[in-house]
């Protein structure tokens, strides 16, 4: 049992016995905690490391800076979506309408810039605000307000959003934005060689991390996911928290929709089809529990990088992308299995 | 009774202070169950009120209404002299009412410190650093006597420590009224809690203390309020708190009448369990139940009682050991084999494990008789259902009405009818009278008496100690998944069972 810590760390307390209000901070405990933290990333972390080492050895091109930036740039959209999805999964839900929202917001962005002639600088906030409102009112309202099942609701809205997006196209065709000077410049923008899209994604990741770790809202998310009844009894407004996370995924989807339009210089109705499963896979690979209450943003970053590196490495080795899909699935199931085995073992040792 | 020997002298002020909470005429209906039927409660600052009553008498419901977790159908609530209408627990917390619930309500994946300060996370934009949580939680953890790393995950704690974290969480909100719903049943050493409650009373904090342990009421309470079938039936002052008065108010008749246990000659072993190990009972369990014998299984929540019964009934796989019924061995993990061997099982959670809620009594009973290639005979089905309704005095509109509409007691009788339909030799009952009113309880006890007279062996797991003491020939006490001791009828007392349940030794 590790519940009562009465052993080794005591020694340093003896030196200042008068301390009653300040907390003893024995280093032994911190080490144990560090070990625990490392263990929780051990799954994806080690597989990712292995993958990087193998690719590094087998493919001289892999380790270059430009390739690294390429990996980040191609997966910036995925990371943004995964940050949003982490919030939903932590509350014990899932948002399968992410791909649909991306399609809808991409097409909306395209229409606003071309037909309505809006400046992209203005179109971005408009699309993000509209997307967020949609997620809050439709998904959030149905799931948290009326108490409908999140699977059913988000599968339904996924169809609705995707096809509303397609209705905004011209008979299903892509809207080219290449003619727009601002969009082209936005697509090429970079700071010290780092593409703007990468910076946006890392910024979103950073904000997500801070919100989850250091705000009351972050604690509420974990509490609602870990035990909704406990959260309610502690005075937390559980339905408001549940509704808010669908607003977050929708906001991230809108940001992702805009990023995608800019990167492709086009609004394409098929660019993000089915992406919600990849997003969920990235988050789950990162150790977030499907049952809610357990997981971190750092894990999500590792999960996303894993998928990105796999894609990049196999792609440049000339291996069929279908194998990549197979590998993703296998690793995901193995990660969940490893987690289960670890829990079983820790249960038998502590009880 | 000598008052001064078992507690400190209590000096109540001569002028009664204004009450901090007044609940008047509170009514609450859950489906067909009338949980509260016009209950009243008044609490003054600094007072320790025991709220007593049998299982299912409505204590928890009243507590949850005071704490804003349940909204009453009727009645008025006044807090600090002003009418209160709690829409959520948050409103009650703001008004200064904190509750430790009967079931644990912490977030397992969070640290102890964060659980303690959970009620403070009400502003989304507020900064919430771990360090602050630890600093805020530490004094309260100290106060309840928990000396552990506040960053330990809650899920790593032992049962008793978990309960203390719940208490720390409640007092961390600095309440005016603290409600403890059977908090002591999960504590190995409740003395510490008594000290805290007494100290809080000195600071003017009122405590509503729910229990059905008479000893604790005598030890701690300034007065006791007794609920029966959702109504207040007695209010006893400090000098009226004797066992006989409290328990007869709880039960509504004398205890001897309630547990009418016939004298039965004990026969040959009906059920033999040897070296049974499952995922929740790591130490091998041996037990025997003879024909005509009632054996009780006591223990705290989580001690492994239900899991043991489930393993015997074939619902939960065994990792090791044998179960035989009158010489026939029962396969591990096969409810079918257990049923064939002569085991009848009434699971704890009748809604989730026992009944098809949307189906009627007739269909619920008919399930027992289904066989893959058999014919369904409507006439026979109805006949059997009507017979069960008469035999068990099930009160229902008709045998086709969904059982979800029945009251708890009547649902339990349907389950009993189902369990004995195929004439078992041994009957396993898990909390057979939880959430059952006193009348139905008496009927169930009478029925158990009839069964043992007919030579059936009965194994009952129950949290109601009076029930175990009143009904059983022997009581086995489980602690942490192992048999901690066995008490014959003559030695089975509340004190001894509680001590063994909490891991103590009985001399
Ligand atoms: N949420 C609920 N849904 C349905 N019935 C309930 C619910 N809560 C309590 N009851 C029923 O109300 C009655 C009173 O329960 P409770 O207040 O828990 O009693 P006590 O705490 O005195 O044991 C019981 O018959 C119980 O089954
Ligand atoms: Mg109760």
From TrEMBL, chain A:
Q: Does the keyword Transmembrane helix apply?
A: yes
Q: Which organism is it from?
A: Dactylosporangium siamense
Q: Which GO terms describe its molecular function?
A: transmembrane transporter activity
This chain's protein is named Sugar ABC transporter permease
Query: Which topology term describes how it sits in the membrane?
Result: Multi-pass membrane protein
Q: Where are the bilayer-spanning segments?
A: 38-57, 69-90, 121-144, 150-168, 189-212, 243-265, 277-310, 322-341
Q: Which UniProt keywords apply?
A: Cell membrane, Membrane, Transmembrane, Transmembrane helix
Specify the superkingdom.
Bacteria
Q: Where is the composition biased (Basic and acidic residues)?
A: 1-10
Task: Read off the Pfam families from this record.
Answer: BPD_transp_2
TrEMBL record, chain B:
Has keyword Endoplasmic reticulum? no
Under PROSITE patterns, the record lists: ABC_TRANSPORTER_1 (PS00211), ABC_TRANSPORTER_2 (PS50893)
What protein name does the entry list? Answer: ABC transporter ATP-binding protein
- Please name the Pfam families in this protein's record: ABC_tran (PF00005)
Gene3D superfamilies in alphabetical order = P-loop containing nucleotide triphosphate hydrolases
Per UniProt, residues of the ABC transporter domain are: 21-254, 266-505
Recall the GO molecular function terms of this protein's record: ATP binding; ATP hydrolysis activity
Q: Which UniProt keywords apply?
A: ATP-binding, Cell membrane, Membrane, Nucleotide-binding, Repeat, Sugar transport, Translocase, Transport
Superkingdom of origin organism = Bacteria
